[in-house]
């Protein structure tokens, strides 16, 4: 079922929150990791995204600049508006907090509430919180993940919607990092009634990760090619 007529498309993240556009922190010196676009492309392919996740991955790769994934500001400004209702953006502090900065409309319908501004850890079983923090930190260091979340729509049987998670490259001096998740699930029929869909918020049982982070001494392939170093030939 198509989205009801007259529904207003979500504005960019900074307009929704009534703030100024996010700062373009860029990529500061990182003593532990380096990004590699070729490795990122291979990691995503190995995870076998399907549905709209294929488009999300393609757009994310197209937004790389200077050998790094998009920043939060560039991602929010340049990702297609049609994909944003199915995207959640998170802020993580290593071993400490995991906050949802923005939850798109489809995720609100899937969960039955708006997770914007809430801690994902508050919806996570105590025994799984450390694992969830560690898993998400690996993403922002340079990894792609695929997971399958159980969703019970308003009509029909439970489905397992594929989700794709990818990092953003901001490196603010306070230590926070950002990443996003896109779900393939789309509301249909009675799903547009908030509260009619039931979704498991715990850590998905079926998930996989592929890293594309390089140690600092390893020069990313794009840089090797640009420099004409022997490793590129």
Features:
233 residues; alpha+beta; Beta-Lactamase; seven-stranded antiparallel sheet; 7 helices; 7 strands; 21% strand; globular; disordered C terminus
What features would you describe in this structure?
By secondary structure, the protein is an alpha+beta fold. It has one domain: PAS domain (Beta-Lactamase, 2-Layer Sandwich), CATH 3.30.450.20. Helices cover 26% and strands 21% of the residues. The chain has helices spanning 13-16, 37-47, 52-62, 72-78, 105-111, 129-142, 221-227, and strands spanning 87-93, 97-103, 143-152, 159-167, 177-183, 198-199, 206-211. Strands 1, 2, 3, 4, 5, 6 and 7 form a seven-stranded antiparallel sheet that branches. The longest helix has 14 residues, at 129-142. The radius of gyration is 18 Å and the shape is globular. The termini are far apart.
Short note summarizing the structure:
The protein contains 7 helices and 7 strands, in the order H-H-H-H-E-E-H-H-E-E-E-E-E-H.
- CATH topological fold name: Beta-Lactamase
At CATH's second level, what is the architecture?
Answer: 2-Layer Sandwich
Number of helices: 7
Please outline the major beta sheet.
7 strands, antiparallel
Mean of the pLDDT scores? 81
Total number of distinct structural domains: 1
Instruction: Estimate the global geometry from the Cα principal axes.
Output: globular
Give the proportion of residues in helices: 25-40%
**H/E series, N to C?**
HHHHEEHHEEEEEH
Give me the CATH superfamily: PAS domain
Q: Got a strand count?
A: 7
Low-confidence stretches: 1-32, 222-233
Structural class: alpha+beta
Could you tell me how far the N terminus lies from the C terminus, measured between alpha carbons in angstroms? Answer: 52 Å
Strand content: 15-25%
């Amino acid at each position: 079922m198509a989205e009801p007529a007259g529904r207003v498309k979500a504005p960019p993240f900074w307009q929704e929150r009534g703030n100024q556009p996010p700062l373009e922190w860029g990529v500061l010196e990182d003593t532990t990791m380096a990004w590699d676009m070729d490795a990122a492309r291979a990691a995503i392919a190995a995870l076998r995204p399907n549905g709209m996740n294929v488009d999300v991955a393609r757009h994310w790769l197209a937004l790389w600049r200077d050998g790094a994934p998009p920043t939060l500001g560039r991602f929010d400004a340049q990702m297609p508006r049609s994909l944003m209702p199915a995207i959640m953006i998170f802020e993580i502090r290593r071993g400490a907090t995991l906050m949802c900065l923005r939850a798109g409309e489809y995720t609100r319908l899937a969960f039955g509430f708006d997770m914007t501004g809430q801690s994902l850890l508050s919806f996570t079983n105590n025994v799984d919180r450390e694992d969830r923090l560690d898993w998400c930190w690996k993403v922002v260091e340079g990894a792609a993940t695929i997971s399958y979340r159980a969703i019970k729509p308003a009509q029909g049987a439970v489905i397992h919607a594929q989700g794709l998670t990818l990092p953003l490259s901001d490196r603010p001096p306070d230590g926070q990092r950002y990443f996003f998740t896109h779900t393939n699930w789309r509301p249909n029929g009675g799903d547009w009634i908030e509260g009619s869909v039931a979704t498991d918020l715990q850590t998905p049982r079926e998930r996989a990760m592929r890293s594309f982070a390089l140690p600092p001494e390893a020069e990313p392939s794009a840089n090797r090619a640009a420099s004409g170093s022997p490793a590129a030939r």
